[in-house]
Each structure stands twice: as structure tokens, then as C-alpha cells.
Amino acid sequence: MKWRAFWAVLYRDLYVTSREFHVFLAQVILQPLFLLFVFGKVLGTLNYTQHGYTDLLFPGLLALTAVITALQALAFPLVAEFGWTKEIEDRLLAPMPTSFVVAEKVLFAVLRSLIATLIMIPVGIVVLGSIPWRWAGFPLFVAGLLLGALVGAGFGLLMGTLVQPQRITLLFSLVFTPLLFTGCSQYPWPQLEQIRWFQIVTACNPMTYVSELMRGAMVPQVPHIRPWVCIVVLIFAVGVLLTVGLRGFYRRAID
Amino acid sequence: MTPADSEGLAVEVRDLVKRYPKAPVNAVDGVSFAASPGEVFGLLGPNGAGKTTTIGMLTTRVRPTAGTARIGGVDVTRDPVRARAQLAVVPQQSNLDRSISIRDNLIFHAAYHGVPARERVERADELLDQFGLLDRAKDKPDFFSGGQSQRMMIARALMHAPRVLFLDEPSTGLDPAARLFVWDRLRELRDSDVTLILTTHDMDEAALLADRVGVMDHGHLLALDTPDALISSLEGEGTLELTADQAADGTVVDALAALAGVERVETVHGAADNGGPGPSPDSQPLRVRLYLTGDAALCVAPAAAVLHEHGLALQDVKLGTPTLEDVFIHLTGRTLR
């Protein structure tokens, strides 16, 4: 009974996404597309960036897409559903445990993230002409995609349950933008030694490890944090985020 | 008042308690009642009485502090998933899925509850027709009126054929025609043995629809019986409602209260106190309700005389028999609002 409900709810979410696919694309692709184009193509063509910078940038932007897409896919609807639309109520009354309601949302966010990140690959090829691809790094690449999506989902869950609807714009400016730029997607972490304090700040952002993992998979010649370190840290971060997020969800859903 | 047969009860509540953290008192303080299949049970009481919390516990949205609640024999705390399969909730505020059409709202809801594909499409169209929403089947619920949303939510609730339907203030915000329509639909449900649990502070609704009414206040169930039985507990009492031609101060009210046969006087406009000079709005003509221990007709002349003595003329007289609101006032000493 509960699995039927689970898949039915997931189907509803996928159905709505497919009906508004162009909206979905606009939401998830525009930001990384512009970053790629401006920082990769434009600055590169004008010779303001070093040769090989796009090799560094592209995996970082894939990481960024993975995390941000999952975050948005979870946080935005959740704030609305708990807030003014109350749409969450019908899901909470479906014949499945409350944890399944959360699990479905996480799975849906991960799926959206995977789709968006995979779409970025042809986008990268079109914008940059070529992308750094390494089949040997494929397992790490997949790990990066999944862990990135889960980290994003974890953040989304946390933000969606802890934030009151009226504070949402504040939250997104205070949390979202810093998250975006301290995730090492546009620069490699090891070389931040030169700005030590910033290196410490970025080390606290789980997105950094996703970016570094992606670079480790696709462009290992660029200095990067060792993949196993990234994986361990990310598993830990996902665990913490999802646990705290789940607790926050229960508090909002059930008195 | 609990039906003797404990098996086969649609809803069973025993000594249910809810205390919110840091609250000085229990929101629900040892409430017990039961409802059989096909019964319409009304829970009457003002805001803050604990009705919503009680319903929240029955619908797995609030965790009880103590006591048990069962839906169709299933303990809501031990097996919330099975309990949810048997119940449905029609809330006061619309919570329809705004991203899909109303027809899809019905179909997906049924899908969540495991209704087979063909059946859910058929039932959706049937219910849309029954609730007069077929012409808007492809619309999204965004711009639906309150009445239409309400009908939609009832239709949705019925999609998975629940045993118990919880309705929170079903008539609020509905025009009289819409309200009658909803009541007719609800009455039809009893034939299919669906139990309805309504929370309301609309007296007419409780009196007309409910088989039994529970009166709640401050977390306690003060009385539980059929509307007729509750009203006849005020046997021999009548009410006399008087409207004067202008506003008046408290001395008139005191004088009226002093008349023989008058148990208490209430200024009508939602005043909270009885007897004393209620906060009558200065500009509005005086309207009072006298609660009498005897025949209301006998008090008309003396009351008119009192008004005359205070320079007021009698504009309107209404003789009344007690209503559920009077039962409530009798039990709690105040009005429902």
C-alpha cells in the first residue's frame, strides 16, 4: 500500500515537470549556461583567462548544476506546500509513512538534478566546442552526480522546512548566493592556499567536495582534493543534512 | 452515550489528551466518544475549544499525549498508514493541487490511495458530475470560488471511498444555496455507511445534519447527545428577543434582568457576558435576549413596560424556543463566537 502511494506521488511530480519542461529547463540551465558562456567562452576568447581554464570550469559547473537543481527542486515547492498552498496535506494523508513523503521528495529532486546535469553536457559541447571527458573517470563522475544531487536535496530539505514563507526571499539571498560562490565550482580548492581564510570557508561548503570530485573524475591533471576524501565528507554531509532536514519536516508536518 | 458494541465502531476515542510543549493547560483534556458507521457526529464549540486538535489527533496530524483514538478499529498512533487509508479530511482552507486540473486532482488522489486506473477515471467523472463541476474538469483550481473548492475537496475525499470523513467547518464562507447543496451531498453519504465527523460553530448545521452532537470547551467534552435531547434538557425555557428603537445603557438591561421569570439577559451582538451591562455599541439600537424560566409570551408586556420606563420604544419582538446555541450558553456561560 505504501509503495503504491510512493510511486503515485512520484509520478505526479514527474508528470507536472514534464508538462512544464520548458520552465524546468529555464530554471536549471540558464544560470550555469551563462556562467559557462561568460567565464568560459567570452573571457577565454578575449584572452582574459588562462588556457585550460574551461577544463577547470566545466566540471565545476556540472557540480553546481547538480547541487543547485536538487536544492531548488526541494526547497521551493516545500515552502509553498507548507505555507500558503497547504498542498502537502493531501500527501501527508496518503497511506504511507511520513518518512516516505520526504523520501519521495528527495528522490524527485535527485532525478531532476540528474536530468539537468546531463543536459549540461551537450550544452557545454555547444558553448565551448569541446568538453574534457575521461571514461576512466566515469565511476567518480557518477558518484559526483549522485552525491551532489543528495547534498542539494539535503540543503533543500533543510531550507524548505526551517524557513517561514515570509522569510524566504531573505533566506535565498543570504544562503543561496554564498553557497553558489563558495563551492569551488569556478576555481580549484588546493590553489586557494594563497587566500587561506577563504580556503577554510570553502572547505565548510559541501559543494566544494562535489566540484573537486568532478574535477578528479574529468580533469585529474588539475590540482584537486583526493576523491576518497571528497566521497567520505559528502556521505557524512548528506547524512547530517538529511537527518536534520527529516526532523525539521516531522516538526512541521505533525504537531 | 457510547454505542454498546465496541467492535465495528467507525471512530473510537478514549481519554484522549494533548498537551503542547510549554503550554500551561491541556489543549484536549481526556475526551472520549465514539461514532458508528453511517452516523453524523458533530463537534460543537468555540475557537480554542480543542476541536481542531482532537480532529488532528484522529487524522494522524497531531500526536496524542495520552489516550487512544481508533479509526475503523485501527489505532492511529500504532498504525497511522492503515488509519489514513480509511479516512479523508475536508479542511476549511483549500489545499487542492494547483499545478494540475481538478480532474487530475481527483485521479491522482485516488492513485495515492491505490484505486485502480480505470476505476479512478470513472469515479472522477462521476463525482465531478455529482458535484456540478464537470464543465470545469480541465481547469486548474487556482481561481475557484470558496464554494467550488469546497465541493472539489469533498469530491476528492470520496475518491478512495473512506469509512470516515472529517469536515472542518463545512459551511463557512458558503452562500445559502451552496450550503444546502453540500448538506444534501453529505446526507447521501450516510446511505453508504460513511461516518461524518463535523466540527462546526454553526448551530443550524449541527442541529440539521448531526445525529449526535458533542459540545466542547476548554479541551473537555461537556455534553454528548442528540440535538433534540440536548435542547430538551432546557425544558420549559423560552427566549424572548427584543429590539428597541435606540441605543441604551446598562440600567435597562439590569431592569430587564430583574423581571420575574427572567433567568438572564444577553445583549445580542456577540457580547461575552450575561446579565451584566454588556458592551453594547453606542450607536446601535438595543437588542437583548431574555432567557426565561417560563412561557415567553407572558413576559412580553412586562418587558415592553420596562423599555417604556427608560424612554425606549419596542420595535421588534421574537419569541424563541431554545436552540443548540442556548444549550452551549447554558453549559459554558458564553456564546459560541
At a glance:
By secondary structure, chain A is mainly α. Chain A has helices at residues 2-19, 21-45, 53-82, 88-92, 98-128, 138-162, 168-181, 196-203, 206-218, 227-253. By secondary structure, chain B is of the alpha/beta class.
Let me know the largest β-sheet of chain A: none
Mean pLDDT of chain B: 86
Determine the fraction of residues in helical runs of chain B and give it as a percent range: 25-40%
The number of helical elements of chain B comes to: 11
What is the gyration radius of chain B calculated from CA atoms? 23 Å
**Approximate helicity band of chain A:** over 70%
The major pleated sheet of chain B works out as: 6 strands, mixed
SSE order and pairing:
The complex is a heterodimer of chains A (255) and B (337).
Chain A: H1 2-19, H2 21-45, H3 53-82, H4 88-92, H5 98-128, H6 138-162, H7 168-181, H8 196-203, H9 206-218, H10 227-253
Helix pairs in contact in A: 1-2, 1-5, 2-3, 2-5, 3-5, 3-6, 3-9, 5-6, 6-9, 6-10, 9-10
Chain B: E1 11-18, E2 28-35, E3 40-44, H1 51-58, E4 66-71, E5 74-75, H2 80-86, E6 87-90, H3 102-112, H4 117-130, H5 146-158, E7 164-168, H6 176-190, E8 195-200, H7 203-209, E9 212-217, E10 220-225, H8 227-232, E11 238-244, H9 250-257, E12 262-267, E13 287-292, H10 300-309, E14 314-320, H11 324-332
Parallel strand pairs in B: 3-8, 3-9, 6-7, 7-8
Antiparallel strand pairs in B: 1-2, 1-4, 4-5, 9-10, 11-13, 11-14, 12-13
